[in-house]
Write a structure and sequence with these properties.
It contains 2 helices and 29 strands. The chain is mainly beta and 375 residues long. The chain has one domain (64-374): Neuraminidase (6 Propeller), CATH 2.120.10. The strands form 8 sheets. A 5-stranded mixed sheet has the order 18-19-20-21-22, with no helix packed on it. Strands 1-29-28-27 form a 4-stranded antiparallel sheet, with no helix packed on it. It is globular and about 60 Å long. It starts with 36 loop residues before the first helix and ends with a helix. Keywords: Repeat.
Length: 375
């Protein structure tokens, strides 16, 4: 039986705990990661996985300028070229390299795919081997050839250069202990200390690990606000440099979904939801939100897997007269059928993995918006 010392109860609002001074919030010690000289030199410009600024979604074109759906693959052994496609595109990520290659989870084909993101979206490499039904991927800071992968009931550290799993946590069977999971999905890495945040989806919790997969005694469960008996499933997760963590969740068909914003210790800051009306919930139309981006100012963008009228939902802060007002915006990408994965390049190109259309779409900002941003 799990010890009470390792349990994270349903989260509470900072300052509401008895016996603690007003405004108290937990802090996280920064852990310095050993980086070789070559890796340090190569990663100075490309090490961060957080987004400092997220452009307004209204700045973007509604039609993609590039879509990856069918692609050519040349077998390096036989030299034969075949036309291939993806099956159930779920999680995607952008590598922290100069070329910013895209890694996509080709779920039902049991493989990872690497695509070019700068020119024609061509297929660069295929990765197989102990990658059955991959769910989500995230780059490892300061290690350009390493990515984290969730699949089955485990999380793995995969070496793209060696094309193999070099470290794994979890087993082939589901469980609820600190090192056992139940169909985990979304994953992200805090670049300040390398800690891994993972959605243990069917255990209804977020788990946090050190870079070497040690449980750091931080995890929390997701329940509906003021309805702790209703647990919900976290899908995707993002962190920023200002102690915030945004999580998308749902429990369809009964609960269409919400975006939860926590601090990195798991204490709730705010819930964005359209199914309930109790404070501190902010009204937002969300229908099975999946991928999410979070910038350092607390603005977030998510894609809704099951809402043809509002494919993307965005929260922005609008500071006027020293008051922080929130604006919720909706954006419809007519070419998207079931968006799920979400990523952004350094030039702020938006990339969406379409789970139902088995494709990856690229969206750029409108020229007028780019000019205004440059000013």
């Amino acid at each position: 039986m799990e010890s009470d010392l390792t349990k994270r109860r349903p989260s509470v609002i900072p300052g509401s705990l008895p016996g603690l001074p007003a405004g108290w919030a937990p802090s996280i010690d920064t852990v310095e990661e050993d980086v070789s000289d070559d890796e340090e030199n190569n990663s100075k410009s490309y090490s961060s996985t957080t987004i400092s600024y997220l452009p307004p979604i209204t700045n973007y074109e509604t039609k993609p300028y590039l879509t990856i759906k069918k692609f050519q693959y040349e077998n390096p052994t036989s030299g034969q070229t075949t036309t291939m496609s993806m099956a159930h595109t779920y999680g995607i990520c952008i590598l922290n390299t100069e070329a910013e290659e895209i890694i996509a989870c080709d779920h039902y084909n049991n493989r990872l795919l690497m695509f070019d993101s700068n020119t024609d979206g061509r297929l660069l490499q295929i990765f197989r081997g102990d990658l059955a039904t991959p769910e989500c991927v995230a780059p490892r800071p300061h290690h350009k050839q390493h990515i984290y992968v969730t699949k089955g009931h485990s999380i793995s550290l995969y070496d793209l250069e060696k094309k193999k799993v070099i470290q794994k946590l979890g087993t082939e069977e589901s469980g609820h202990a600190n090192n056992r999971f139940n169909l985990p999905s979304g994953i992200t890495v805090d670049p300040t200390n390398g800690e891994i945040y993972m959605c243990d989806t069917w255990n209804h919790r977020i788990c946090v690990f050190s870079p070497d997969f040690r449980f750091v005694n931080r995890r929390w469960y997701l329940t509906r606000w003021q309805q702790t008996y209703h647990k919900v499933k976290p899908n995707f997760i993002a962190v920023n440099a200002n102690n915030q963590c945004a999580v998308t969740c749902e429990d369809a068909p009964n609960y269409r979904g919400a975006v939860y914003v926590f601090d990195k210790m798991g204490y709730i800051q705010k819930i964005y939801d359209n199914d309930t009306r109790s404070k501190p919930i902010v009204d937002a139309k969300l229908s099975i939100p999946h991928g999410i981006l979070l910038d350092d100012d607390g603005n977030w963008l998510t894609v809704c897997y099951s809402d043809p009228e509002a494919r993307s939902v965005e929260r922005r802060s609008n500071i006027q007269d020293d008051q922080d007002n929130e604006i919720i915006s909706y954006w419809r990408g007519k070419d998207l059928k079931g968006p799920s994965g979400l990523a952004m390049k350094r030039d702020q190109t938006l990339i969406i993995g379409d789970r139902d259309n088995n494709s990856i779409s690229f969206f750029k900002q409108q020229e007028a918006s780019k000019s205004e941003a440059a000013k």
